[in-house]
Design a protein that fits this description.
CATH class: Mainly Alpha
Number of domains: 1
Strand content: under 5%
Organism: Cedecea neteri
Largest sheet: none
Protein name: Probable 3-hydroxybutyryl-CoA dehydrogenase
Number of strands: 0
Order of helices and strands: HHHHHH
Structural class: mainly alpha
GO molecular function: 3-hydroxybutyryl-CoA dehydrogenase activity
CATH topology: N-(1-d-carboxylethyl)-l-norvaline Dehydrogenase, domain 2
Pfam families: 3HCDH, 3HCDH_RFF
Number of helices: 6
Distance between the termini: 41 Å
Keywords: Oxidoreductase
Length: 116
């Protein structure tokens, strides 16, 4: 997209009363990859017995003012989707931080079994 085309698109959406953000093309999309990392970390805390599922979500809602907790987001977006995204990010970057927890793998498997 040329800078002129981008300016036209931005102007169009601003006329509709929308706030426009321009984000560079990046693997995993900004919002999805952030939510996926938070959900994976929350599952790790749950698996290690740090806190219960409801407590983790409540802590994140009250502590950082998220509209939903990371586990509620994970369930809403789909555990298989989160697993696939993290696996793709790990493959693309080769970084351990994107490694899915075993609990995420279990939830994705259960989700797939319920769909079939």
């Amino acid at each position: 997209m040329t800078p002129q085309q981008l300016a036209k698109v931005i102007h169009y959406f601003q006329r509709q009363g929308k706030q426009v953000l321009v984000i560079n093309d990046y693997p995993g999309m900004l919002a999805w990859r952030t939510v996926a990392m938070l959900a994976n970390e929350a599952l790790d805390a749950l698996q290690k017995g740090v806190a219960g599922e409801a407590d983790i979500d409540t802590a994140m809602q009250l502590g950082v003012n998220y509209p939903q907790g990371p586990l509620a987001w994970g369930a809403r977006l789909g555990w298989q989707n989160i697993l696939t995204l993290l696996e793709n990010l790990q493959r693309h970057y080769g970084e351990e931080r994107y490694r899915p927890t075993s609990l995420l793998r279990q939830r994705a498997l259960l989700e797939n079994q319920h769909e079939h």
